[in-house]
Amino acid sequence: MSPMRQAQLQIHFCVLLWGITAILGKLITLPALPLVWWRMLLVVAALALLPRVWRGLRALTPRLALAYCGIGVLVALHWLTFYGAIKLANASVAATCIALAPVFTAVIEPWVARRPFQPRELAFGLAVLPGVALVVGGVPDGMRAGIAVGAVSAVFVALFGSLNKRMVEHADPLTVTALELGAGTLMLTALAPLMPVLLPALDGDLLVLPGLGDSLLLLALALACTLLPFALALVALRHLSAYSVQLVTNLEPVYAIVLAIVLLDEQKELTPLFYLGVAIILGAVFLHPVLERGRQMQRA
């Protein structure tokens, strides 16, 4: 199996696990801030047990370590707004909003990764916008704030995905994961006192221990749906562009919506317009790799 094909399979597996995170985020009763804080803290605690991570940290230059810490702050802000969107709307809506990320990635990645701008990438990113408009029209008015917060989350996805693509070759994936999520945990800890003023809808007490049910769900979220796919995605980025990865990530709503229907009965909260919008978004996702393969065959 070629490295690129293996990387594509790895990303699809990661997206399946990321689809499950939306469901876990809805099932966990904690507000967005403590939910994300515990998620990141548990991953960092698990990685701190690995000697490989400490060896990797000692090998990093201060400048490189600081760069990874900055990316970790963006990761934390993405998760904070993503789970905020889940709490303000539902799992299906929050996962669908992430499909806006290719629009931002098409503009951000060429600048960050220092590669030529590709107009067709922006065109495919913009192709999802009619679907997003239908998604917005297919949710109750009370969920519109969740869509706005979800769109902000998509901006952070584009930023940290593009930066990780540029930095991915410089350190061990588990070391990068530990450093980024550790920095994100510290940032959220510092941000917590300001949350009642800045984002009261996402605020929550970090010092309250979660109950048994939330604790078990948090462990599943942190280890199976965060640590594993986060590190695996960093490995896959060595062979794929951030834009290609983000297009595959648009499959996340499929997994999240199907699971939300089965486990959370969310279809009662949404209209057919919502699902039509999702279909348009996914159509753009599937059409892009087909056309890309056609272009490559013509060149050959």
Question: Which helices and strands, and how do they pair?
Answer:
Layout: H1 3-27, H2 32-47, H3 51-59, H4 62-88, H5 91-97, H6 101-113, H7 119-126, H8 129-137, H9 144-167, H10 173-191, H11 195-198, H12 212-236, H13 242-249, H14 252-264, H15 272-299
Could you walk me through the main structural features you see in this protein, from its secondary elements to its overall organization?
The chain has 300 residues and is mainly α. The protein has one domain (3-299). It has 15 helices and no strands. It has helices spanning 3-27, 32-47, 51-59, 62-88, 91-97, 101-113, 119-126, 129-137, 144-167, 173-191, 195-198, 212-236, 242-249, 252-264, 272-299. Helix 4 (62-88) crosses helix 10 (173-191). It is globular, with a radius of gyration of 19 Å. The chain starts with a helix and ends with a helix.
Explain briefly what this protein structure is.
78% of the residues lie in helices and 0% in strands. It contains 15 helices and no strands.
Features of the shown structure:
single chain; mainly alpha; 15 helices; about 80% helix; globular
Order of helices and strands: HHHHHHHHHHHHHHH
Range of strand content: under 5%
Rg (CA only):
19 Å
Could you say which structural class the secondary elements and strand pairing correspond to?
Answer: mainly alpha
Shape: globular
Mean pLDDT: 85
What's the end-to-end separation, in Å? 21 Å
**Number of helices, counting only DSSP H or I runs of 4 residues or more:** 15
Helical fraction equals: over 70%
Oligomer kind:
single chain
Q: Low-confidence parts, pLDDT < 50 over ≥5 residues?
A: none
- Please indicate the count of domains: 1
Q: Strand tally, please? A: 0
Largest sheet: none
